[in-house]
Amino acid sequence: MYYFILFLLLLAAQLVYFQIAKKFSIIDKPNERSSHTKPTIRGGGVVFVFAVFLAWVMGAATWPLALGILLVGVVSMVDDIQPLHQLPRITVHLLATGLLIFDISQGTSLGYWIPVLFFLLIGWTNLFNFMDGINGITVLYALVSLMTFYQLPSLASDKELIVLVGMSCVIFAWFNVRKKAKTFAGDVGSISMAMVLGYLMIKVIFITGNPFYLFFFSLYGVDACMTIFVRLSKRENIFQPHRTHLYQYLANEKGFNHLVISFAYAFLQLFINFLWLYAIGLEEIQWVPGLIFVVILLLFYYFLRKYAKPAEKNIELS
Hints:
Number of helices: 12
Protein name: Undecaprenyl-phosphate N-acetylglucosaminyl 1-phosphate transferase
Shape: globular
GO molecular function, one term: phosphotransferase activity, for other substituted phosphate groups
Binding site for Mg(2+): 129, 187
Helix content: 55-70%
Oligomer: single chain
Strand order of the largest sheet: 1-2
Pfam families: Glycos_transf_4 (PF00953)
Distance between the termini: 74 Å
Cofactor: Mg(2+)
């Protein structure tokens, strides 16, 4: 009954937001770079922020985490409505990141690890945001991550937080995992979710001392990082909108159904997570299996991207 009431509160928050979004025209209109074809409510991922706030009210989340997610949620929502200058967004992201790292490190001196954690969390947040481009991909990937984190004994104290955020994902998925989505997560959803997942990831690495838990984010990591590498090699502005991620090539160039791609990413990442949890093991750092895994993943990505990428046209000079 307890969780059912919380589920209803989250559902009510989502439905109320839809009415607000319609009234104030918080709508995502398609353009030449979009993977959707009709105007859709933007910012539905605000329910993730509400879930963290609710977790704090119920005593399942700390105040630094709740405040950090609330800050990025507010600035991202404003940016979804009216694009902001980079300075206020970067400032808030840095402040929120600092709050999350402060939360993780309470009672411990991190020293030189602080800049490393800042880099990891901010980098992951931006990568996750870049990957939010087709129906279902963000929420399904988030659900897989949350399901995996729920299995970890080292995150036992965060189980109620994980359940609440997971319920918000289920609610959002009902309106997003469709051929014609009713809502998109928007920056408010993708960035706040990235922060929550990044927080849990850094926390488990900090507790266990094993960086191989990062493999739980391996598909997003390899797609986003390799896409950035390719764009930089072509001297492109990586902050400009584009459609050159592998999932975008599969959707826009090869014509695969968006939901098929989203479920494929989610299920493949779920397989990888369970492989490391229950077959290979993460009780200690295993360098040889880790190296083999990375090589196989990069080769798989390379050949799949080569298959999906459109052929470049030769330009003849007259």
